[in-house]
Amino acid sequence: MTYITTRDGTRLFCRRWGDGAPVVFTHGWATSSELWQSAMTLVAEAGFQAIAFDRRSHGRSDDPGRGYDYDTLADDLGDVLAALAVTDATMIGHSMGNGEIARYITRHGAGRVARIVMAAPSLPFMLNCADNPDGPSDLARTEEWRRLWATNWVDWLGQAVPAAYGPDTSPARVDQTLRVMLQTPPRVAVEVNTSVVETDFRPELRQIATPTLVLHGDADQSCPLDATGRKLPDLMPYCRLKVYPGADHTFVGAHARQIAEDALAFIAETIRAAAA
């Protein structure tokens, strides 16, 4: 474990396990890299270097009180990759973490990135509006949530986290997620949510030629498959979708082995294709 200092002095908590080619994980809204630990373990055991960091103001990283737009978050990701001298990386994101990956590539180029695996992406555009009528996030309702989070973040999480998991989920997994999300201050949750919901990635996704695999559950209520992941192969030139039947938005823990196996198979496939 180490800390990486960004260009504006923010220290980001970073985990790096194993040796070999790098696999870099980015996490979802209001969580931390802790929720990727199972997949990281499997990737490291397979002979890769598993890397993950906590977003600014999340987990064990510094809370600078600013910088929650995607440009800044993408620059943070770039600082991590540069500090660790990462090249030929496989990027694996969950939910909003995929936006960080996409913005990093369109802002800094794909020189360090060989392939992308997007798990339950909050892309291409979450906001429900005239030119995105199936966007899952109604702005009026979302603003109500943001006002609620400002003063009732703990109470809201206490109800929302158990509801996000299926009935067969163990209490321990729910408790872990709740504990991790409680480390995120409510103001940060509000600011980051604004970036997630109101950033339109449709134009820039067309610029990303990096081979991409989308993994998405068909029971995802936070980022419904038809409004998000299913749209990406039509926007990105080298992208395909694999649907996980019955999986919800929280599947990075319960489906960690399947995610890791699919990611490792995708790595092998793209290496073969590049060598052909």
Describe this structure in words.
The protein has 276 residues and is α/β, with parallel strands linked by helices. It has one domain: Alpha/Beta hydrolase fold, catalytic domain (Rossmann fold), CATH 3.40.50. It has ten helices and eight strands. The protein has helices at 37-45, 70-83, 97-108, 139-164, 171-182, 186-198, 202-205, 232-235, 251-254, 256-275; strands at residues 2-5, 11-17, 22-26, 49-53, 89-94, 113-119, 212-217, 239-244. The N and C termini lie far apart (38 Å).
The share of residues in extended strands comes to 15-25%
Largest sheet: 8 strands, mixed
Q: Please, how many domains?
A: 1
**Termini Cα gap:** 38 Å
The overall strand count is 8
Task: Kindly provide the name of the CATH class.
Answer: Alpha Beta
Q: State the strand order across the main sheet.
A: 1-2-4-3-5-6-7-8
* Shape verdict: globular
Q: What proportion of the residues is helical, as a percent range?
A: 40-55%
CATH superfamily: Alpha/Beta hydrolase fold, catalytic domain
What is the annotated CATH architecture? 3-Layer(aba) Sandwich
What's the mean pLDDT score? Answer: 97
CATH topology: Rossmann fold
Residue runs with pLDDT of under 50 for 5 or more positions:
none
**CA-based gyration radius:** 17 Å
Please count the helical segments: 10
- Which class best fits the helix and strand makeup? alpha/beta
Question: What multimeric state do the chains show?
Answer: single chain
Order of helices and strands: EEEHEHEHEHHHHEHEHH
